[in-house]
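Researcher: Going back to the complex we discussed earlier. I've cleaned up the inputs and rechecked each line, so this should be the final set. Can you rerun the prediction on the complete assembly and write out the structure?
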Amino acid sequence: VTIRLRISLALGLAGVVAFAFRDSPLAVLATVTALNLMLREEFPFSHFPMYADFSPRALYVRVTDGDGKPVALRGMGAAAPLLTKVYWHERRQAAARLGLAPSRLSEAQLREPGTRTLAFVAGQAALTGALLPSRLHLYEVDLTLRAGRIERREQLVAARGPC
Amino acid sequence: VLAPPGSQDLGAVALAVLRAGLALYVLASFPKRLPFARQPYPTGLARLVDLTFLSAPRSTQILWGAVAAAAGAYALGIGLPAATGVLALAVAGVGALRGSQGGSIHGPQAPGLVLLVQTVAFGRAATIPAVWASAASPAGLAAQRTAVRWSQQALVAVYVSSALTKLLTSRGRWPLHAAYAPLQVAKAAEQAFVRTGDAGWRDRRLALADRLAAHPWGTRLIFSCGLAVELLSPLFLLSPTATVAGGGLLLLLHWAVGLAMGLPFWPHQAMLLLFMANPLLLE
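Model: Rerun complete. Updated structure for the full complex:
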């Protein structure tokens, strides 16, 4: 209901913008900008949130085999940036269920979003016929900036497959 | 009648080149397969329709046939209102399915928006039989000129939206926070390494990230220039010369983002090359 309301509101407001700019040679620019900002992520509209702000930390995830060797996910519909987005989505969902901020989840609480992210990888591999190592590890990498230097910390979040 | 005041007086040849370019882009970039059996986080058209049927090989084949036929008709200038509508719907459907997997995609939005506004532009002229029959008819040419001008506005809207989102999200502090951008440069380098396995490329980007991290004010200045280009991009619509020059500036911006983040945004660049940084617009 919230999403439908938001979309209806966005379309209504965009209609108002289109009407207000109807005699302007830039009516399309104004209307598409309004739709982008109000609909946010409803393809092909987007408010382009990538790098919309920079924080003192950068988190991402990577998948390795049981020996720590990176697993390339190209061609599976699970490229590294998408995987990080899926992981963050799962992490936000888990945090919402627990009533916590996504950044406050403990190591044990991160296991569920991590496991679900690895399940997504396995699902994509099954769908595309790609071969995966029998054992998969999901690592969360945390980059921070301190005194003009980049520091890197890595943590095993979840594992899948036989030990 | 259809072209707004001040519309570029593009000739039939230039318009044919633009149509052929857009049709070729759609054909070249259209995915050969859609490995998505679920749409767990629906977006766009996926909110209205379960688009997972597109992932079945037979559906993908049929979709390909429809897109190829529509792209051919669009390039030849036949049945433009219907051809553009089919292309817009196909790109919107595929983009929505790909974007419904839990992480938004930010590549094909620009061509998706261009096709959407062109569909509206040609839809407005759909009651004129000459627009369906021939792109070279006076009504057909007028409709295409409107479509080109609207495409340029849709492209500029992408950059204005991006700039406004930066300022709104950071509460105006984006230029200051840009000092942390080197972390994203390093992150992008490591993620690209997983994809490409090119250790040399990764190490060069990590070295760039280290240099940027060591010079926060220089980093702020460089990134703020990019924000200024995005924010001022409506000025690129003032004249054909401004459009071509501005399109070149936006291409330069993409080159810099590609260099730093490994995200060249090829679909955006292709649309800029066609509808903005294109010397044919100066004719």
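Model: Worth noting: Chain B has a mean pLDDT of 92.
Researcher: Good, that matches what I expected from the previous run.
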